[in-house]
Amino acid sequence: MAKIQSLRFVPTKAHPTQTALETSAPSAPGVHDTLRSRLAQTSTAPSVSTSSSTAPIALQSAHPLEARLTQWRDTQDRLKMEMLRRQFGIAEPVRRGMELKIATAGEWRPAALGGSSGVHKDILEGRDCEIGWEDVFTGELLSSSGTVIPDSKQMLTIEI
């Protein structure tokens, strides 16, 4: 059964089959309290690990499609690494994981220059031809940074 799970290319269904009654806002009975249930629309998706565990990914999102898409990408990555392991041995997925970790940790650009673009990570993951919402909506209107020096001080934790 483990071999069948390792070659899965569609994630398992993770939608709930039962719903639990949630408590409402204490100041307005009957009104859903979004802040207490941690379903804010502005929450970001957590970084997805490349481990071989099949634990469901818990996102703080109000839409179930976001969790499904994150699970889809995680399942595709695990399938690709399993195929590489079977074809080239364990060294190839380990090497790619190390390269991805190095590229992710070493990539930094000041916010004045557009912030971190993630192009090295996209190339290593094979997603350099995809266009995501992060590529279109860069968040320039929400950024308060304007110069390179404060960003460098913040990154290097320099106090002057």
From TrEMBL:
Where are the residues of the annotated region Disordered? Answer: 1-59
InterPro entries xrefs:
Ump1
What Gene Ontology terms for biological process does this UniProt record contain? proteasome assembly
- Which residues fall in a compositionally biased region of kind Polar residues? 15-26
Q: Which UniProt keywords apply?
A: Chaperone
List the GO cellular component terms: cytoplasm; nucleus
Q: Where is the composition biased (Low complexity)?
A: 42-56
Q: What's this protein's family per the entry? A: Belongs to the POMP/UMP1 family.
Q: What is this protein called?
A: Proteasome maturation factor UMP1
In which organism is this protein found?
Answer: Neocucurbitaria cava
Upper classification of the organism: Eukaryota, Fungi, Dikarya, Ascomycota, Pezizomycotina
